[in-house]
Design brief:
The chain has helices at 10-19, 26-36, 51-56, 68-81, 83-86, 121-133, 150-156, 218-227, and strands at 3-4, 40-43, 61-65, 89-93, 105-110, 135-146, 160-166, 173-183, 188-199, 202-214, 230-237, 250-257. By secondary structure, it is an alpha/beta fold. It folds into 2 domains: 7-146 and 216-257, 3-Layer(aba) Sandwich (Rossmann fold), CATH 3.40.50; 150-214. It has a 7-stranded mixed beta sheet, with helices on both faces. Strands 1-10-9-8-7 form a 5-stranded mixed beta sheet. The protein starts with a strand and ends with a strand.
Length: 259
């Protein structure tokens, strides 16, 4: 059985099921959209977890994603949502390190650990450069990501975890066997995932993925932003806009073009 990308086939469907009810960051992005206005751009929009509610609220938004399968699921959900939301959306299949949209945006989002897909510094700089290129003069680029918990990473490295979810449509059982290991020299997290879908005792389908993600600390992301011609206007502790403290688990950078 060949390994799939974590965002294609069975994995794209599973991602949608797993994250369908997660909305901890939605109110923050709705507030930013109201504050800075249209048009909006989401880098790594996936199946539309943020994009669709923003469109439903009346915002004009473009979503860029490399995965054809994730965008297909996003389009399916937009079709269900109806014309009122669908007419506000443009979906573009492209690599967020190299895309050309020919327009500027008032709010650009790299939400929910999107930057961790950049496993090398040149990739991170390329994404930030593209954001800077597409940012309107008075616009903001918002980056949010988890602050690495090194102690927890060391303790869990190489440990296999298994959890189950019920398919919301078919009622079948999806078993996710997950193992992550951490290389702090390369600052890479390697994730091995095995998905299985069961109907009672019968295995319906199975897929494996092998994925790498970057491990980034706030100071190096801040340096990469500044190197890319962006200045950090605000730093928030997670999605509640509080000040950053030692125990913070998430960080949000609100950035503008450097003058």
């Amino acid at each position: 059985m060949d390994a799939l990308s974590q965002y294609e086939g069975f994995f794209a469907e599973f991602y949608d099921i797993l994250h369908s009810s997660y909305d901890a960051d939605l109110q923050m992005y709705l507030g930013l959209a109201r504050e800075y206005g249209d048009p909006l751009l989401e880098l790594g929009c996936g199946t539309g977890r943020l994009l669709i509610p923003l469109a439903a609220a009346g915002h004009e938004i473009t979503g860029v994603d490399l995965s054809r399968d994730m965008l297909a699921r996003c389009q399916e959900k937009l079709d269900i949502e109806g014309e009122a939301a669908r007419r506000h959306v443009t979906l573009v299949q492209a690599d967020i390190r190299r895309f050309e949209l020919g327009r500027k945006f008032n709010l650009i989002m790299a939400a929910c650990n999107t930057i961790l897909h950049c496993t090398a510094t040149p990739d991170l700089l390329a994404v930030f450069a593209k954001a800077r290129e597409h940012l309107a003069d008075d616009g903001v680029f918002v980056v949010d990501f988890c602050i690495p918990n090194v102690k927890a990473m060391i303790e869990s490295s190489g440990e296999e975890e298994v959890f189950e979810v019920i398919h919301p449509v078919r009622g079948t059982r999806i078993v996710d066997t997950y193992k992550a290991s951490f290389d702090f020299t390369r600052q890479i997290e390697t994730i091995h995932t095995h998905l299985q879908e069961w109907d009672e005792r019968s295995l319906i389908r199975s897929a494996r993925s092998h994925t790498e993600r970057g491990i980034y600390f706030p100071r190096e992301v801040a340096l990469a932003l500044r190197y890319s011609g962006l200045t950090i206007a605000k730093t928030w502790k997670g999605y509640r806009r509080g000040p950053l403290v030692e125990t913070s688990q998430d960080i949000v950078y609100i950035c503008r073009s450097a003058l």
